[in-house]
# Entry
Amino acid sequence: MEQAFTELKERLGKLTDLRRAEGVLVWDMTVFMPPGGGPTRAAQLATLHEITHEYEIDESFGELFEKLEPYAASLPPDSEDACLIRVAQRDWSKARRVPTELATEFALAQAQSYDAWVRARENSDFASFRPWLERMLDLRLRYVECFAPYDDPYDVLLDDFEPGMKTDEIRAVFAVLEPELVSLVEAHATDEKDDFMSGPFPIASQEALSRELIGRFGATWDQFRLDTTVHPFEVTFGLGDIRLTTRYREDDLISLFTAMHECGHGLYEWGVNPSFERTPLCSGCSAALHESQSRLWENVVGRSLPFWRWFHPRLQETFPEKLGGVPLESLHRAVNRTRRSFIRVDADETSYGLHVILRFDLEQRLISGELAVEDLPDAWNARFEELLGIPVPNDQLGVLQDAHWSGGSFGYFPTYLLGTVLSVQIWEKARAAIPDVDEQIERGDFHQLHMWLRENIYALGRKFTPAETIERVVGGPIDPEPYLRYLRDKLETSALV
# Structure
């Protein structure tokens, strides 16, 4: 039995290595690779994915799981070994439903489609991207059929990001959120300009501040990197190798919130129990839990008044000509204003959820066949104006703004809002456990908050299901009410009038 478990861990370690090697190629493709490298890189990724998938679905895994059944049954259900066997077996069983040919074709198309999306976005040219999106949608529909029968085809895609959750559960949460968010935006959205936030802000100074924030939150630069890309993301190559990406513009300071957002992802991955390294347990539990951490650090902490009491002088020192005479209250109000804007990643806390609801609605219609890809821009523009109240001027600011669909990541978008909702539930628990957390943040001290999150969420990795993890942390399922209460309280404070 011991030999079988040792062999399982060795094979899982090699599988983790292969997956992370794929991640290195993707990271390089989006960060450093010259544009001309796209076709070759796509072929490399397809080759490596074919090898990885064949290894992942090998019958030897099934033989090991069969041998280990008595051992797993003898263990406490929440023991590390029992959880590892359970998670690995689930992953293996799911992967075996997908033919290697389909998995390989998808990996090739992902890389090619991303390259096409970058060019289409730059030129605001949906027509050039349409054939690639149609191909990615077709590949995802073929993938869905590998899991027939199913209640809802979207459930299959959602399970890749939020294991065990059903589409109906999201619909129920979003049905509560949508009318409330629309009402809050209508009541509080403003066109008032904060000219001091329009720059110029030298990029080198923005980078220095971004790195300072990431370090303050707890990251160390011997195990983290920060680089630039078109659409920011975080990727982990090992517990000592966390890659963050961002983007800068001289006419705003969105990069600071991007840095906090991606740092939240990185801290989660970095905080996984070291004994999980090179196993399927060594990552965040789900996309919603991951987004709960990026949104907690970016918004609940990074847009709070205690945070700005600490950070305001640093910003004034860095940009004295633009911000030297701007009082704390004005700066805090500026970074929290509710505005009707086009870009999801730049959206304020209140309107952000509507951007996600838009994408969730459109994805379901695409997957069900109700909406054709050729009609997607018009559908996007109509639904966007219905939710946000402003017309979309072009596809770059509309349907082409996100990279996700170019990679076939249908099912990911709703987890952004689920995670945003969950971030407030987690914050309430952290605040109860650390009564003076606001005072600590006001001093620029984030250590105790980071350690609480690390102990209660990060260290668990994928040991438990997302639903079990959320239950352990907040004592119940995802609940929109604390988030709505948080927004109302924030919008009603005098600092945001």
